[in-house]
Amino acid sequence: MPRLLPDNPYQRYQARMISEIIASGIQPLQNISVLKRVGEDKKVEWAPVEKALEESAGHFCVGNQLSIADCCLIPQLYHARRWKIDLTKYLLIPSIEERLNSIEAFKVAHPNQQPDCPEKEKA
């Protein structure tokens, strides 16, 4: 099984930092219950993630090795699209997403591939 944190200490820091930006700064504001309380206009911009990726990205979020940051990125991009967040101004995020979506483990883990996914969302 691949390690989700790189061996290199600085890359390990980068993977944790990107994961934290997504998990603490973006993910909570893409939950329906939170948006009902704070208002839908509070949907988060992805600029901090893109900025971090400018320093860390290679083929994936942190260099050329899959990491926990990649595992955090994909589900939140799914939610960003559900909320119709404009991601076209970012260059690194969609290119990393495209590479990740070509990996079998990410394909089978996609929310639309889960047994309890509503049929209307599977298309």
From TrEMBL:
Q: What InterPro entries does the database record attribute to this sequence?
A: Glutathione-S-Trfase_C-like, Glutathione-S-Trfase_C_sf, GST_C, GST_Zeta_C
GO annotations of cellular component type: mitochondrion
Q: Which GO terms describe its molecular function?
A: glutathione transferase activity; maleylacetoacetate isomerase activity
What sequence ranges are listed for the domain GST C-terminal? 8-119
Q: Which PROSITE patterns match?
A: GST_CTER (PS50405)
Alphabetical GO biological process terms: glutathione metabolic process; L-phenylalanine catabolic process
Family membership: Belongs to the GST superfamily. Zeta family.
Know the name of this protein?
GST C-terminal domain-containing protein
